[in-house]
Amino acid sequence: MTVTRAQTNALAATLRAGFEAHGALPVEPPILQPAETLLDLYGEDIRARAYVTSDALRGEQMLRPDFTVPVVQMHMAHGADPARYTYAGEVFRRQEHDESRPNEFVQVGYEVFERTDPAASDAEVFALISQALSGLPVTAVTGDIGILMAVVRGLNTTDLRKNALMRHIWRPRRFRALLAQFSGDMPSAPAREAVLAGTVEASAPLVGARRQHEIDARIAALRSDAQAPPLPLRDVELIEMLLGLSAPMPAALERLHDLSVDLPSIVPAVARVAARQQALAAHGIDVEKLLFDASYGRSSMEYYDGFVFGFRAVDRLDLPLLASGGRYDALTRRLGARLGDNREIPAVGGVMRPGVMLELGAVI
């Protein structure tokens, strides 16, 4: 089916009007965004795919790769508390490995900034998007990045190792390699061993942007970390069990409660999942059939730090997600710190792809 821009825009307008009917304020962040401010807030995937250009007066600029970060920036500068926003428009991402995926497409979104009841806000966003997709052959999956973050923070190991694992939560292969390295299950790379053994030539020329004092500090940190005891294999096994958890929400929650006996650091995060399940059920979501996958969302936006979700076509695996979203409390904290007043506010949102919805048979 050939979908026209006019059809996509018409459906986008209808979807946005639906969010406005639920109290969302329509906003239109500029297509051209300041690159220096935003690029470090995105994960590696989006940074690598952003269109960046230079302006003589404004410096580096980028075509917006999504709406969430500009909307959060706008809200943190002068938004009300609580607040709900909606938007519709084009986003731009380079596609270097898949010519079938568009580098320009329309997103429609709904964002909630509210302190009172995060579980209720999560359920509100999910339920509204689910309702907008009703009638289409889609399946939903949920997860929670905050559980794995809580596990890493609770590990009995060095801060250097915890920080490394936290940085690579969104890169599953690298995360598992680090677990194997820190538990002693995988030997260190030869270059690392050479550094630790002190066999690297001190007079070797500097390559890259790092200065000598930065290199010396890094070597000292690596040598200090090498003296730390390995991660207990039992901890690694428990993390692997968590990452392999995928089941309907009630069964997954029961398994999470079991894991929390051996991983007490996840107790608060599991309680948030339980509260979210109740809130979703109150919104009419059939939680008995709703999939919870503990690894879901680990290759998407790096600003998600809690609830994550996605809707995919049942029989069209060639299509991208019709909708996705999640909670990004840490993003508001980082932007608040940039503004110098350390403000933060719990926030959750989701985006929809009207063009993909039309390909799947949505009616305008």
From TrEMBL:
Homodimer. L-histidine binds at D66, F67, T68, R93, Q107, E111, R298, Y303, Y304. InterPro entries: aa-tRNA-synth_II (IPR006195), aa-tRNA-synth_II/BPL/LPL (IPR045864), HisRS-like_core (IPR041715), HisRS/HisZ (IPR004516). The keyword Transferase applies. GO terms for biological process: histidyl-tRNA aminoacylation. NCBIfam families: PRK12295.1-5. It comes from the Bacteria. It holds the Pfam family tRNA-synt_His. One of its GO terms (cellular component) is cytoplasm. Keywords: Glycosyltransferase, Transferase. It comes from Sulfitobacter guttiformis. This is Histidine--tRNA ligase. GO terms for molecular function: glycosyltransferase activity; histidine-tRNA ligase activity. Residues 9-354 form the Aminoacyl-transfer RNA synthetases class-II family profile domain.
